[in-house]
Design brief:
The protein is α/β, with parallel strands linked by helices. It has helices at 51-57, 90-97, 102-107, 112-121, 124-140, 156-171, 195-212, 230-242, 258-266, 279-288, 296-301, 310-315, 336-347, 351-358, 360-365, 393-396, and strands at residues 3-13, 32-41, 44-50, 63-74, 76-81, 143-149, 176-184, 218-223, 246-251, 270-273, 291-294, 321-322, 383-386, 403-408, 411-415. An eight-stranded parallel beta sheet has the order 5-6-7-8-9-10-11-12. Helix 6 links the parallel strand 6 (143-149) and strand 7 (176-184). It binds N-(iminomethyl)-L-glutamic acid and fe (iii) ion (FE). The site of N-(iminomethyl)-L-glutamic acid has 14 residues, from helix 4.
C-alpha cells in the first residue's frame, strides 16, 4: 500500500457536493476546508479533514507533503483541446495583427489546412515530441486531464496517426487524455468542392475504423456554414452516435444558433464556443441537457470582443464548462489559469464559478464526474498545489502558471522549479 498525506493547506478546495454537474448558485459553492489535510492511498483519496485528524491515521512510512500554507485544488479538467499538430501559425498571427481575419486566412488556404499539411508530413515520433512539450505546459497550470481532439490529419491514415499519438501520450499516465475524433475539422485540400465525398469518407471509412480500433470516445464536428453546414454535421454526428461515440460540437463560433440547436436536437454532451449563440440556442441546450463549453482564450487570441454570454447561461441554470481550446490557430495557450482570468474579467464569472466550470463540470462533460473533478473520498487523487493562499488569487494574479506541485493518481508529475 502506498500512502500520501498533504497538510498545511490554507484552503483545501474540495468541490464536494451532489454527484452531478453544478448549476446556478451551486457553482459558487466550492466546499472549502480551511487549514485542511488530505490522505491518499494507492492513488485514491482516502480522507479529507484536519491535520490533527490525519496525524492520527497516517501510517509511519507515508509520504508527507507540506503544502506550506498554499491552496490545493482538484486538477483542472481541460475539456476542449487540440494538442497534436506540427509547426506553429506564428506567421498567420503576424498577418492577423496586420489586419487579415481568421476566416479570410482560412478561405485563402491557410488556417487549419496549413497545419494539416505540416501534420501529414510529420512522423509519429515528431508529433509525439511536440505534444510532450505541450503536455508540460498543461501541467504547469495545474491541469491533470485533457480532452484531446484529432483533426489535423483529415485523411484516414493521418487521423489514425494522431489518435495513436494521443494513445501513446496517455500511456505513461503523466496527464490523462480523453480522445475525440475530429475528422470533420475542415475539408482537406484534395476534397475542396467535393464536400459530399469527404462526408462519405468520414461516415463510411474513418468513423468505423476509429470505432473498431477504439481510438476515440467522442466525435466532434466544426459546424459552421462555410465548413460543415448543419445538414452535413447532422449526418456525421448521427453516424457517430450509431457507432457509440459521445457527441461534442464546435457550435456557433462565428454564425448564430444553428450549431447549438443541432447539439440540442442530437442530445450532444457538449456544445463548444457559443460566441454567436442567442437566447433560443441557450434555451434549447437547457431543455436537452447539453453542457456549454466556453473558450474565452480563443476569443482573446483572435482579437475579438465577442465573448460568450456566460452570465446569461449560468443564470439560466446551464452547467457551464471552461476550457483552453489549445490549438495552433485560434488559441495557442494551455493555461487554465489564463482562462480563469479571462472568464472573470471578460465574462463576469466569479472566481468560484470559474473553478467549478474548470473542474467538476468539465469532468461530467467527459463522463468522468464519478472519478475526477473534486476532492472526495474514493475519487482519483488528481490535484494541484497552487502557489497562493486564497483561491481568488488564481484569476487575480494573471499571466503566470500558478502550480507549485501537481499529482495524478497520487504520483507527482510536476514540481515547480521556483526557489525563493
Ligand atoms: O476551436 N474552430 C475550429 N477549430 C479550432 C481552431 C483550430 C485552428 O485554427 O487550427 C477552434 O477554434
Ligand atoms: Fe476547438
Amino acid at each position: 500500500m502506498s500512502e500520501l498525506a498533504v497538510w498545511n493547506c490554507a484552503q483545501l478546495v474540495t468541490l464536494a457536493g451532489p454527484p452531478r454537474p453544478r448549476v446556478g448558485a451551486e457553482m459558487r459553492e466550492l466546499a472549502i476546508v480551511h487549514d485542511g489535510a488530505m490522505l491518499v492511498r494507492d492513488g485514491r483519496i482516502q480522507a479529507i479533514g484536519s491535520r490533527a485528524g490525519m496525524e492520527r491515521v497516517v501510517s509511519a512510512n507515508a509520504e508527507i507533503i507540506d503544502a506550506g500554507g498554499r491552496i490545493v485544488l482538484p486538477g483542472f479538467v481541460d475539456a476542449h483541446t487540440h494538442p497534436v499538430f506540427a509547426g506553429t501559425r506564428a506567421g498567420e498571427f503576424e498577418q492577423r495583427v496586420a489586419g487579415a481575419t481568421y476566416v479570410e486566412i482560412a478561405a485563402g488556404g491557410g488556417g487549419i489546412r496549413s497545419t494539416v499539411r505540416l501534420t501529414r508530413e510529420a512522423s509519429e515520433a515528431d508529433l509525439l515530441a511536440a505534444a510532450r512539450r505541450y503536455r508540460a505546459w498543461f501541467l504547469r497550470g495545474g491541469t491533470t486531464t485533457i480532452e484531446a481532439k484529432s483533426g489535423y490529419g483529415l485523411s484516414l491514415e493521418a487521423e489514425l496517426k494522431i489518435l495513436r499519438v494521443i494513445r501513446q501520450l496517455a500511456a505513461d499516465g503523466r496527464l490523462r487524455y480523453v480522445p475525440t475524433f475530429l475528422g470533420a475539422h475542415e475539408v482537406p485540400d484534395e476534397y475542396r468542392g467535393r464536400l459530399d465525398a469527404y462526408v462519405d469518407l468520414l461516415i463510411h471509412e474513418m468513423l468505423p475504423r476509429v470505432a473498431a480500433e477504439k481510438l476515440a470516445e467522442s466525435c466532434d464536428v466544426f459546424c459552421e456554414p462555410t465548413v460543415f453546414p448543419v445538414a452535413k454535421a447532422r449526418a456525421i454526428l448521427a453516424a457517430a452516435r450509431a457507432l457509440g461515440f459521445g457527441l461534442r460540437i464546435h457550435a456557433d463560433q462565428f454564425t448564430p444558433d444553428e450549431g447549438a440547436l443541432l447539439a440540442a436536437e442530437l442530445g450532444a454532451a457538449t456544445a463548444d464556443h457559443l460566441e454567436a449563440t442567442g437566447p433560443a440556442g441557450f434555451e434549447a441546450l437547457k431543455a436537452a441537457g447539453v453542457q456549454p463549453v466556453l473558450l474565452p482564450a480563443s476569443v482573446y487570441h483572435l482579437g475579438s470582443t465577442r465573448y460568450p454570454a456566460a452570465r446569461q447561461m449560468i443564470d439560466l441554470g446551464l452547467p457551464v464548462v471552461l476550457a483552453t481550446d489549445f490549438n495552433p490557430g485560434s488559441s495557442p495557450t494551455a493555461s487554465m489559469p489564463m482562462v480563469l482570468s479571462l472568464a472573470s474579467t471578460q465574462m463576469r464569472m466569479t472566481p468560484a464559478e470559474s473553478i467549478a466550470a474548470a473542474t467538476i463540470n468539465a469532468a461530467y462533460s467527459l463522463r468522468r464526474g464519478q472519478q475526477i473533478g473534486s476532492l472526495e473520498p474514493g475519487k482519483l487523487a488528481d490535484f494541484a498545489i497552487h502557489d497562493c493562499g486564497d483561491y481568488r488569487e488564481l484569476p487575480y494574479f494573471f499571466g503566470r502558471e500558478s502550480a507549485w506541485a501537481v499529482y495524478v493518481g497520487g504520483t507527482c508529475v510536476y514540481n515547480s522549479p521556483q526557489v525563493y
